[in-house]
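Lab meeting, item 3. Inverse folding demo.
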């Protein structure tokens, strides 16, 4: 046998080393050999591999090798004054809280100047957010309660409230009509509730903004409703508004509010602001959540690192917040966090990949969570992962699945089919459902069951190949109520009320006091008049249609406006540190001796900068910035988004402010550089952290 000479051996060894290195590289990058091996062995290629190979849009060059640590956000607790601890020429902008509080203090000072019952002062739209509101201030000689009524076009449309006994009064007014002289009746009440004096005040209002012209059109009105005011908000309805039982708009918020509004048990609301957004693999998500009241006062702001979508709900009344967010680890709209209401800290969380994996984990928005709610008696949550066509109940502490409500054929052949509730009786299963909640009312008279309500959009778009073989194709949506026997793992459909076909968003609401059920259709698919929303009010038992209102624009949800008049009348109180929460932070550069300075300076206006507290807001179009570099005399930090790859081209046109927290950076004098559209620029801005 021929022996190899020394030169041949060396060539072979070099070849073998290169082959091993090449194979290792392929394995690391998940290309070639790895994919071939997975296919040959009949195994599913992990989505994390597929996602990295998908076409991406935007810019991803790095000047410094760094990756954002999604497992290590910085915790923030501060106020607007915290910005004073940073020396910079970058403009400083305050939160809604600071402006609300300043106005409230001015109003209180005005009250202390003394206005009589005979000549009260009327301050319309006092907080410059809610034009159809007012505050009336006056003193009375004796302490007394005050009842007030904004007179409606009908008696049923009157909006009345009452505030507790006092001698100095701040009377909140909500429910003025636009573009008319409104009559407001004030009545003084003694301890027994008897009227001791009364008067009428006239308040004249301006016209509605153009976006709200013809926003509500009555289709059928009974002249009264279980909801005194019905709020409509989100999506294309950028000015949230509320209408009365006759379909007249009686409240709205000025400004752009395209994201969600979520009702709280204290009759305030969480408002998702357009101030800042976190880039994602798809739609950017708002990071700033305000607790606000209907006069427009803001009390607290929460930062959500991965951005919020679809839902913020109280775990229990006045308790912690359950917030839907995104993992950003190849997926969006797949994560739930429990945020401490008092501190803003995340105290519990769940990523959907931790409970479901495998067959359906095949796209960026693979679950599309749109509701979550908590049952304290069992420490369970009910979630609605829309793109899994399922409603799921699981333990919030252990994360163990209790049951799954969906067509059993969806999970057939998977490890999860054992959790699927078995149907009894006739069924129309839900598809791409919204607002799936466990109900408090016993609607079937069986104490062995719990009821679950939802809005069944009854639409198949995301998983056509999986469900078209058994989807009935009906072009209408439904209000559904199920009775679930959790012990026997069975389910009955006890209510199905059809509505116009609303393919996304929308909500179903059951009102126990009136026994009415509402269908809020926020995305009407095929309307002849091109109006995009429809709201229904039905009697639950008879299914009789009581009221129906057509809405001009697409919207996210609609719900009842519940008002706490005493809260609105009270002097505003805020915490010392009313800005709280978590944000993804810049990472410290490992290149200690990096001294590179950009040769180019970016034109004014390409990127905007401002500070709120100690968070730098960098404004640009989505995925145009790949790195923001803070280069100091001793330290260098990098805010890097290159691992968050955009897969939807249309969002390149979305302008956003990215919140970059400076709280985790060491004291130094930093110059700010940026990698913008794959070019390295000096922003000619400095920040000095003391």
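The presenter then showed the designed sequence:
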């Amino acid at each position: 046998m021929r022996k190899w000479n020394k030169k041949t051996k060396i060539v072979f060894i070099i070849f073998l080393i290169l082959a091993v290195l090449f194979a290792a590289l392929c394995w690391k990058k998940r290309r070639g050999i790895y994919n071939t091996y997975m296919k040959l062995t009949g195994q599913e290629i992990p989505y994390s591999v597929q996602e990295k190979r998908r076409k991406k849009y935007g810019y991803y060059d790095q000047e410094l090798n760094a990756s954002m640590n999604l497992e290590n956000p910085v915790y923030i607790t501060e106020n607007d004054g915290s910005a004073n601890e940073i020396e910079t020429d970058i403009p400083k902008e305050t939160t809604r809280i600071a402006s609300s509080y300043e106005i409230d203090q001015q109003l209180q000072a005005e009250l202390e100047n003394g206005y009589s019952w005979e000549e009260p002062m009327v301050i319309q739209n006092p907080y410059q957010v809610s034009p159809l509101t007012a505050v009336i201030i006056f003193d009375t000689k004796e302490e007394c309660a005050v009842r007030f009524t904004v007179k409606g076009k009908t008696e049923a449309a009157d909006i009345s409230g009452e505030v507790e006994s006092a001698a100095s009064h701040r009377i909140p007014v909500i429910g003025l009509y636009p573009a008319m002289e409104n009559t407001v009746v004030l009545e003084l009440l003694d301890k027994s509730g008897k009227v001791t004096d009364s008067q009428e005040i006239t308040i004249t209002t301006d016209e509605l903004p153009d976006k709200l012209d013809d926003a509500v059109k009555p289709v059928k009105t009974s002249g009264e409703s279980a909801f005194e005011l019905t709020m409509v908000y989100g999506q294309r309805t950028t000015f949230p508004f509320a209408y009365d039982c006759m379909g007249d708009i009686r409240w709205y918020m000025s400004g752009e509010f395209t994201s969600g509004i979520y009702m709280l048990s204290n009759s305030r609301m969480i408002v998702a602001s357009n101030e800042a957004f976190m880039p994602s693999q798809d739609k950017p998500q708002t990071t700033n959540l305000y607790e606000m009241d209907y006069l427009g006062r803001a009390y607290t702001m929460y930062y959500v690192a991965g951005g919020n979508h679809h839902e913020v709900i109280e775990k229990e009344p006045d308790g912690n917040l359950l917030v839907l967010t995104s993992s950003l680890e190849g997926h969006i709209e797949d994560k739930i966090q429990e945020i401490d209401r008092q501190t803003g800290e995340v105290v519990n969380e769940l990523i959907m990949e931790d409970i479901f994996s495998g067959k359906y984990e095949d796209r960026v928005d693979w679950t599309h969570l749109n509701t979550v709610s908590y049952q304290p008696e069992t420490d369970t949550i009910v979630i609605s992962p829309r793109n899994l066509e399922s409603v799921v109940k699981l333990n919030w502490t252990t994360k163990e699945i209790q049951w799954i409500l969906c067509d059993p054929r969806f999970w057939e052949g998977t490890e999860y089919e054992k959790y699927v509730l078995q149907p009894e009786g006739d069924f129309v299963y839900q598809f791409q459902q919204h607002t799936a909640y466990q109900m408090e009312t016993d609607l079937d008279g069986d104490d062995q069951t719990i009821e679950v309500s939802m809005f069944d959009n009854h639409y198949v778009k995301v998983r056509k190949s999986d469900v078209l073989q058994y989807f009935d194709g009906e072009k209408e949506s439904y209000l559904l109520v199920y009775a679930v026997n959790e012990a026997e793992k069975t389910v009955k459909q006890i209510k199905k009320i059809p509505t116009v076909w609303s393919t996304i968003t929308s909500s179903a609401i059951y009102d126990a006091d009136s026994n009415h059920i509402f269908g809020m259709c926020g995305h009407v698919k095929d309307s002849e008049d091109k109006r995009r929303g429809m709201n229904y009010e039905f009697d639950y038992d008879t299914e009789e249609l009581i009221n129906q209102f057509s809405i001009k624009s697409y919207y996210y949800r609609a719900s009842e406006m519940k008002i706490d008049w005493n809260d609105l009348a009270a002097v505003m109180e805020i915490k010392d540190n009313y800005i709280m929460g978590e944000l993804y932070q810049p990472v410290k550069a490992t290149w200690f001796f990096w001294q590179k300075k950009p040769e180019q300076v970016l034109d004014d206006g390409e990127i905007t900068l401002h500070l709120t507290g100690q968070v730098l807001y960098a404004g640009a179009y989505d995925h145009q910035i790949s790195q923001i570099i803070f280069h100091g005399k001793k330290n260098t930090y990098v805010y890097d988004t290159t691992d968050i790859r955009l897969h939807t081209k249309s969002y390149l046109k979305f302008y956003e402010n990215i919140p970059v927290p400076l709280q985790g950076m060491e004291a130094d004098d930093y110059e700010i550089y940026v990698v913008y559209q794959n070019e390295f620029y000096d922003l000619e801005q400095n920040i000095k952290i003391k």
